Amino acid sequence: NEVCPVSRSSMANDNQKLALADQAFIEPKKQINDQNNINKYTTSEAYIRLTRFIELLNESVVNKKISDPCFVSELVQKVLDSLDTIMSWIDEIPPLPTSQRFGNKAFRDWVARLEQNASTIHRDILPPQFHDSIIELTPYLTGGFGNATRIDYGSGHELSFVSWICCMHLLDLFQEQDYSALVLRVFT
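The line above is the sequence of Serine/threonine-protein phosphatase 2A activator; the predicted structure tokens follow.
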């Protein structure tokens, strides 16, 4: 995928945030389909920004345990509350009783609910002036939980979830003080 505002050329360096008024948000499309695309992506500004964001998050939790206390801002708490809601659907959509070779097909119903509610989830998290960004944020959120067709989950899905967080950071929603909580509370 092209990485949301992470790929915007309007950001000159890691410290500069996106100017919200200058953004025209569009739905991201999958563009990495072969080795040539991978090679191109790994030298792009989007890749550099995303890996730098991951490095910053990593640095914020050096020598910390998941159980260590950390500052949780109002926005981080909204994300956590939304994740709690998403996870509560597991109890509402129980596994199908039939034996299945790979995963449980009830996962498809769970993903469908996530996709149907993604806009509402974002509206609950984001301040109103950021609602236009929902079209770009949604695929990263929904892609962060696995693939409903293949009923699988892997590192690409984790990267999608981190990209979702990174996009919100680039919109200046998360600050450096949020980094530890993004790792120790949100990502875990």
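Note on the example: DSSP finds seven helices and no strands in the chain. Confidence is low (pLDDT under 50) at residues 5-15.
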